[in-house]
Fold these 3 entries.
Entry 1:
Amino acid sequence: MPLTRLFCFAFVSPRRLFSSSFYSSQKLDKNTPIIAEGAAFLPSLIRTAKTHYICIVPTKEFQIKHYSDRTWVNDYLSSCSDREKAFKNWMERDALFAVSTLNQAKEIGYATLIVDGSKSIEENFQFIIETFEL
């Protein structure tokens, strides 16, 4: 994924985050269900049954709307000389990453869920339950 000089914040490699998370998860009982959130859990790094992983990504519009409402975002961007541009670049990067992750999951055959706000949390939850065959 290309990064540009326009970003005013650090980006940690998902592979690096995954290695640490994966190591920790290996200590758990194999029968313990795990729900994990974050960019570190790339579909290409997960080696599990199709009923044990779902790729959930927001649409760009959903991400922008909800990040705009988060009070910590201004603090996060406080050191940027152009906060508006930094936020725009951040959201663009995340949108491109989401598309890439979604395509990866589809190519592997994992279930996917695109969150755009058109379905309730309960409807999304029901889809996850069905996917995990719970």
Note: The beta strands are 54-58, 111-115.
Entry 2:
Amino acid sequence: MAEKVQKSAEEWRKELSAEEFSVLREKGTEAAGSSEYDKFTPKPGEGHFVCRGCKNPLYSAAAKFQSGCGWPAFDMCYEGAVKTNVDNSFGMRRIEILCNRCDGHLGHGTRCTHSRLLCISCSLAVLLQCSRARDSARKVSHAATSGTA
């Protein structure tokens, strides 16, 4: 794993848009169905999704699927790319997904299997110039093996 990224709130505010800062650093969200990447799926081998805050590779294009929930959904992540925490906010018990490199809030996962990771588009960026060899060489693991919750 790449070195941890630690920045002050002021440093993050200079680098991120107001919406990105709200989501990544303050655990904000976006309305279901308004998501930039909800219906966007690159072809397998065409690229991967990275954390918009630190550019940490998170998910391959092949891991993206259409869940119908209104947020981008992934069923696998790169090994060590994400971590999870139990989130008891808003009177619910959910699994929060965080970037393992910068601790940026990415979204939430399902409690029962951890196999469905729902992410907020403005916390992600997609890199489409990734070669097939580089993308397929990355270790990928089921979300259930990468969490702490």
Note: The longest helix spans residues 18-26.
Entry 3:
Amino acid sequence: MGDVLFVGTVGEEELGDLRGVKALFRDHPDIDGFISVDGDRINRIVNRATGSHRYEAIFKGPAATASAHSPASAIHAMGRAIAKISEVRTPSSPKTTFTVGTVRGGTSVNAIAGDARMGIDMRSDSMDELLKLEKTILAHVREAAAEENRRWNADGISVELKLIGDRPAGRTPEDSKIVHAARPLAPRARPAGDPGFGEHGLQPRHVPRHPGRDDRPRRRPPGHAFAQRILQATAAWLGPQNALLVVLGLAGLDGVSRRSSKRANPEARDERSKSKWKYDGVRVVHSNELDINTPQTPGMNRAAAITHARAGAEKLWAGTVIIHPKARPAPIITVRSRA
């Protein structure tokens, strides 16, 4: 049995840098799993997180009028940096992208800017590719400031780089318990290798890449502004219901999934539960009542309906078995003795 925390995080978007969920894991290092509820696609299982590094580049120089002898400009240096960044090439797989999202600076149309700033977002599904991209872009920014100084034979332009967002990339394996617990509730989720399974996203689920953590279905309509989001309300209640069922399946429910000492001992088994199965007719075990706390095999996921612990069965095990594509279970060896 486990405890369940229901948490509403803050600082998710823009410059919040996931401060809410970072604080959650900082203050609760014993958390075993994390499920994020976001969006309206209840048939979607998200088990991958896109990483992101965000920087503010601050260019500074001697502000002057446009008639100055050495018009080295902070804005010109920033323009050089943007031109260099726009020519960077990134791999399509793992998907890696970047953008200069904001620019500002200067005081007047006829003044040489002494201050200019831009916000840079870099992201990738791979931490290795993200770090390569970061190294390349930061080098271009520094070189742009040096070029502006060389252009005017000056040394007044400088640049400062501030890390303002750090979201690590990661992935929860498709055959993990937490993904397996969600799959019966998202029957149309496709298997590993299919681009429809495991949508990526920049959400609180990123921090940290906690062992066994996974994400519930999410989807964002185009656009980031609140007014641009349109959520489909049809059967919206299924989302919270499915999320709760996954949580209960993982944390356990007292009296249902808990294996107490009474149930572990055949002589002390709860007689009322025993009689319910043995004498009270047929009992239907629904898909959301299956127990994933049963021995597993690599490449396969089992969920029990009838076991010794649940029903007192001595020689019967019944449940579901999912065999993943390209799985290689251990071979079955049959030994026959000759009469």
Note: The helical segments are 19-27, 74-86, 127-151, 177-182, 238-251, 261-264, 271-278, 308-311.
